[in-house]
Amino acid sequence: MGKEDPGLYDYLPYYDRPKITWPGGARLAFWCAPNIEHYELDPPLNPSRTSWPRPVPDVLHYAWRDYGNRVGIWRMMAAMDRYGVRGSISLNVAVCDHFPDIAAACRERGWEFFSHGIYNTRYTYNMSEDQERAFIEDVKVSIRKWSGQQLAGWLAPALTLTERSMDLLAEAGITYTLDLFHDDQPLPVNVRSGRLISVPYSLEINDFTSLFQGNATPRDYTDAIKAQFDRLYLEGADNGQVMCLPLHPFLIGQPHRLRQFEEALDYITSHDKVWLATGREIAGHFLAHHYDAFAAAIAAGKKGGEA
Fold it and tell me: Does 225 map to a domain?
């Protein structure tokens, strides 16, 4: 019989949790995660997954994604600058070698650099433990080289994981992962040593799943972002919440979508009890002030379930 649960996190019901307080009495920690990616035209074959929907060379899809690094990211940056929203970039670190102007612009803005692997066409599937460990260390070195930052966060390239990924992230000193999608608050992740937490990311208001896969209109997408914000802001009056807006420059950076993106940022930043944070800041605050209380609540729940 196979495993019934990934075992990466424990159950802690939403209605009965320790209270999270954010800096300045904010109800909601809001962070924006541009996925700045690079795709190889003819990447090495992975036995578990093909990289392109069409036969190689798939120039159509390669060039569409390349639009994000040539045009879309610069529109996004300008809009985020206007509303005082810093980015936490989900970075394929090869972007820095291919497009150093992008790395420099993000660094100058004080944006957080976190990992989305090396290329979005290089997956962790089928890696040995030593290969995956070396992969993580390679990314850490690149992040330090191009940003001067210690790597804190991880979103697996193309959302690919192995059964040991979380353990290796904690071992490497990474403090948060975005690969679990299971909650609206940070929570402890079960690892064999050290501490790792999940910070809420989103597939529901991700422009890839909404605009690309779901064929939402720009107006529908903006309405969904506002509705997400309204509910979390309301619930945050009782217990601090997190809202992530994950974006892809080749999608949200298209001319016909920029006004909707700006409208969403204007709406969110017009509220006064919002902490405009980075992923690193959210993770650091939770680890320093709330991790122990959440871990104790989870342990108590386990003990009660055994009684």
Answer: yes
